[in-house]
Amino acid sequence: MAGALVVLVLVPALVGCGSGGRTPTGGPADRPRYFGPVAPPAGEGFYRPPVPLPAGRAGDVLWSRPVPAAGPFATAGARVVQVLYLSSGALGRPIAVSGTVLVPVHPAGDAPILGYAPGTQGLGDDCAASKGLAVGVNLAVGAITEALGRGWIVAVPDYEGLGTPGEHTYVVGPAEGHALLDIVRATPRVAGLTGAAHRRVGLTGYSQGGGAAVWAAQLAPAYAPDLDLRGVAAGGVPADLGAVGRALDGKGAAGLGLAAAVGLDAAYPDLRLNALLTPSGRSVFAAVRTACSLALVTGFAGRRIADLTTTDPMTLPRWRARLAENTLGRVAPRIPLYLYHATSDSLVAFGQAARLRTEYCTRRVAVTWAPFPGDHIDGVGRTQEALRFLADRFAGLPTHGNC
């Protein structure tokens, strides 16, 4: 499982948190405010939010800037805008998140918004999806271009701490779910459109992105009731996070599990990862903290977290409690879901995804379950099925799933 094509969609190994969350001060609004200057900071300064953050609402825009469309986006005539917006961290703390909004050449007056959650990019700031999308290079380009061709507006978050200051809370559920919902809130302001409350919204993603999309579905009723969320299409979803992490430990893609430990520790200071590391562990984790996706997979093969720590974090009650409370499936989304997963997935175990489907079916969620033969990478080519599912939801067609 090597190569850039594979690793840009790789699994979140361990993920965080419960189904609640607080918006930044003021709560949601139909049309988020714009705080930014006429000319936002240049270069990398764009990713540095003001200190302190202004007291605002989730989805408020700090600033934005257009970037020249490149690659397939230029061919499609899309308008590409980078944005820095307010969101909430895993524990409800107001944060700033960067991302990208892409607008088709002639959007319909009622064009829906697709929140596209990217797969694993890495932990270093240079890995942020917005930086690749600015030059038209990212595994998400094909799916985004197809969505633009349907006339949809596409919003792509970078997630907390990826591009912006602080460590990336890699695969932490509430943080990535909030980031996805809040860039959708920010999109009408950035794109010069009317309010998001009257626009149909769909969410999609694969691997880490699939987890983010499903977390957003669980969080939305309490966190973003202002959004007209019609459906979620998610593939390769890591639902039982402990199971996924154990399967990665000591294997070829072990770096993803190490990255997840960093992400959890960044979100939850009580986990105190650094206090557990051996001298060699500190060296390995220092490299993990700046690695992009290819390096995470190819550079840490065979590493076992127990060999890098004085005490295996997975045996500690505080770590186990965070993992347990962060398992997907405990809250029933109120919208239809399309879940697809490779039956021979070597990165995100198939069995735990099937259990998520069963849990949602028990809770009477309208789940369309679509297993397919192959490994994790084979799910990348199934974008068309996911977008067709969302197109039907935008059209108001009913679905009862296949539970």
Task: Supply database-style keywords.
403 residues, alpha/beta, Rossmann fold, 434 Repressor (Amino-terminal Domain), 2 domains, nine-stranded mixed β-sheet, 13 helices, globular, disordered N terminus
| Strand adjacency order, main sheet | 1-2-3-5-4-6-7-8-9
The rounded Rg comes to 19 Å
* Strand tally: 9
Q: Using the alpha-carbon principal axes, give the shape.
A: globular
Fourth-level CATH superfamily of the largest domain: Alpha/Beta hydrolase fold, catalytic domain
Mean pLDDT: 89
Approximate helicity band: 25-40%
Number of domains: 2
Structure class: alpha/beta
Largest sheet: 9 strands, mixed
Q: Spans of 5+ residues with little confidence (pLDDT < 50)?
A: 1-23, 25-29
Q: For the terminal residues, how far apart are their CA atoms?
A: 32 Å
Question: What's the CATH architecture of the largest domain?
Answer: 3-Layer(aba) Sandwich
- Give the count of helical stretches: 13
> What is the CATH third-level topology name of the largest domain?
Rossmann fold
How much of the sequence lies in strands comes to 15-25%
Strand and helix order: HEHEEEHHEHEHEHHHHHEHEH
Main CATH class of the largest domain: Alpha Beta
Task: Give an overview in words.
With 403 residues, the chain is α/β, with parallel strands linked by helices. The chain has 2 domains: 4-228, Rossmann fold; 241-325, 434 Repressor (Amino-terminal Domain) (Orthogonal Bundle), CATH 1.10.260. Helix content is 32%, strand content 16%. The chain contains 13 helices and 9 strands. The chain has helices at 4-7, 72-76, 129-133, 141-149, 173-191, 208-223, 241-248, 254-267, 279-288, 293-298, 317-325, 350-362, 383-394; strands at 61-67, 79-88, 94-103, 113-117, 153-157, 200-206, 228-235, 337-342, 367-372. A 9-stranded mixed sheet has the order 1-2-3-5-4-6-7-8-9, sandwiched between helices. Strand 6, helix 6 (208-223) and strand 7 form a beta-alpha-beta unit. Helix 5 (173-191) packs across helix 6 (208-223). The chain is globular and about 60 Å long.
